[in-house]
């Protein structure tokens, strides 16, 4: 893949380690971590993240087969669970690359080739993929009817664990515990995500799935002590020009200069993951000074009003940084940090520190 040179994402691996240390304080004895590295590790770079933490976790989770194959090709040996629904055309790849499939519908038993390992997925209240709770006994019998397939785990998804004190979490936990009673005690068993791990004292079984928390963000508004964002994003000024009072900037002419001053042009736009909806809503930092992004964000550029300040072209610009992270951006457009992080174009170069 040809890398873009207009900006750089920096991933501090030492913070990743610290985040695991902090989250482990919430993990019950005998419980292993499944690190969720789907969507290129939430935009952080799956192969590098997985390599750094492989000795700290029991396995990994990805969304699709291609993500799992990429990890194997980069030397990752721990178990890898694929969340996606199996497809007939690619089912052979699970065994070829030693990947664990997800079985969430009856027909999947007939699609997977002999020798494939799988985890069962039950819908306990998420309302998405998975068997229904009252199908547990029938599924247990189906496993016996398919001795050439190897069931190695069972899981479900909480729908509201990002919020502490949710009654639905407790309800789902109870349903999952009942489902679990139909299957072997030796199976890897997981329902707790970052929120459930940090905010609830419910049974974690023998595995928890940590995703957004690894990368330094809580799943909702409630903070998790000890974790901090792993990723920063930097660019540079490519041009600084004068802008007269009341002159407009960018498409739509929606912003006009309150007084004559300087305008900085940054070569980052929505093609890079800087969402157009963030127009006029975020700030950047230049040499310690904070400036507003003004006017409509375009495909390849955004603009900052420097007022009377001036910087030479080539001066570094901090987009995402310690006091202006993905949570700040997300809250300004009523979304979540997940969306901000996974929107950053994978063609942007990632630098890894520590």
UniProtKB/TrEMBL annotation:
Record: residues binding substrate: 128, 299
MF (Gene Ontology): alanine racemase activity; pyridoxal phosphate binding
Active site: 38 (proton acceptor), 251 (proton acceptor)
Any Pfam family hit: Ala_racemase_N
GO CC aspect terms: cytosol
GO biological process: D-alanine biosynthetic process
UniProt keyword Isomerase, yes or no: yes
Modified residues (N6-(pyridoxal phosphate)lysine): 38
Domain of life of the organism encoding this protein: Bacteria
Keywords, sorted A to Z: Isomerase, Pyridoxal phosphate
Catalytic activity: L-alanine = D-alanine
Matches recorded under SMART domains: Ala_racemase_C
Domain Alanine racemase C-terminal: 230-353
Pathway recorded for this protein: Amino-acid biosynthesis; D-alanine biosynthesis; D-alanine from L-alanine: step 1/1
EC numbers: 5.1.1.1
Cofactor dependency: pyridoxal 5'-phosphate
Annotated InterPro entries: Ala_racemase (IPR000821), Ala_racemase/Decarboxylase_C (IPR009006), Ala_racemase_C (IPR011079), Ala_racemase_N (IPR001608), Ala_racemase_pyridoxalP-BS (IPR020622), PLP-binding_barrel (IPR029066)
NCBIfam families: alr
HAMAP family: Ala_racemase
Function, as annotated: Catalyzes the interconversion of L-alanine and D-alanine. May also act on other amino acids.
Family to which the UniProt record says this protein belongs: Belongs to the alanine racemase family.
Name of the protein in its database record: Alanine racemase
Organism: Fodinibius salinus
């Amino acid at each position: 893949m040809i890398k873009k040179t207009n900006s750089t994402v920096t991933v501090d691996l030492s913070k990743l380690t610290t985040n695991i240390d902090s989250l482990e304080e919430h993990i019950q004895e005998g419980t292993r971590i499944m690190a969720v590295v789907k969507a290129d590790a939430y935009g952080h770079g799956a192969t590098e993240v997985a390599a750094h933490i492989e000795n700290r976790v029991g396995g990994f989770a990805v969304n699709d087969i291609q993500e799992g194959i990429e990890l194997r090709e980069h030397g990752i040996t721990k178990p890898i669970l694929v969340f996606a629904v199996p497809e007939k055309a690619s089912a052979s790849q699970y065994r070829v690359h030693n990947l664990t499939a997800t079985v969430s519908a009856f027909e999947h038993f007939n699609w997977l080739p002999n020798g494939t390992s799988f985890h069962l997925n039950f819908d306990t209240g998420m309302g998405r993929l998975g068997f229904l709770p009252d199908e547990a006994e029938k599924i247990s019998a189906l496993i016996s009817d398919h001795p050439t397939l190897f069931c190695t785990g069972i899981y479900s998804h909480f729908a509201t664990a990002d919020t502490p004190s949710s009654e639905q979490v407790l309800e789902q936990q109870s349903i999952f515990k009942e489902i679990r009673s139909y299957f072997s005690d030796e199976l890897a068993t997981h329902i707790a995500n970052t929120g459930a791990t940090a905010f609830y004292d419910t049974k974690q079984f023998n595995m928890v799935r940590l995703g957004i928390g690894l990368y330094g963000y809580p799943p909702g508004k409630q903070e998790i002590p000890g974790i901090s964002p792993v990723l920063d994003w930097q660019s540079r000024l490519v041009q600084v020009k004068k802008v007269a009072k009341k002159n407009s900037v960018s498409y739509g002419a929606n912003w006009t200069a309150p007084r004559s001053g300087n305008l900085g042009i940054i070569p980052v736009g929505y093609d890079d993951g800087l969402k157009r909806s963030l127009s006029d809503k975020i700030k950047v930092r230049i040499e310690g000074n904070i400036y507003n992004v003004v006017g409509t964000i375009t495909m390849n550029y955004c603009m900052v009003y420097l007022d009377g300040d001036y910087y030479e072209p080539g001066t570094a610009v901090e987009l995402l940084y310690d006091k202006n992270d993905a949570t700040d951006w997300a809250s300004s457009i009523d979304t979540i940090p997940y969306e901000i992080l996974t929107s950053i174009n994978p063609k942007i170069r990632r630098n890894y520190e520590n």
